Amino acid sequence: VAEGLGLGRAHDSQYWEDFGTHLELGWRPFVMLLLML
Q1: Which residues of 6-37 are buried (b: 16+ CB within 10 A; e: fewer)?
Q2: Which domain holds residue 22?
Q3: pLDDT in tens, 5-27
Q4: Contact predicate 30/23, CB 8 Å
Q5: Where are the alpha helices (DSSP H) in the chain?
Q6: Which residue, among 24, 13, 7, 22, has the nearest Cα to 36 in the 3D structure?
Q7: pTM
């Protein structure tokens, strides 16, 4: 779990950049992203 959190923090900025991009594109890409998790 600790390694997972470390990895998450390392890619945190990239994650939020992608998150913002999906919000701009609309809800469909965001839903597709959630389905892939």
Answers
A1: eeeeeeeeeeeeeeeebeeeeeeeeeeeeeee
A2: 2-36
A3: 555 555 677 777 777 776 776 77
A4: yes
A5: 2-10, 12-25, 27-36
A6: 22
A7: 0.28
